[in-house]
Amino acid sequence: MNVLTDAQIAALSAAERRQLIKRLERPLSELVPLDQVHRIRWSWLGIMTGGTLVLIPWIVYLAFALPDDYLVHDWTATWVGFDLLLLGLMAATVVFGMLRRQVMLLTAFATGVLLICDAWFDLMTAGANDFRIAILTAALGDLPLAAILITGALRLIRFTVVRMWLLEPKTPLWRLPLLP
Question: Which domain holds residue 54?
Answer without folding.
Answer: 33-66
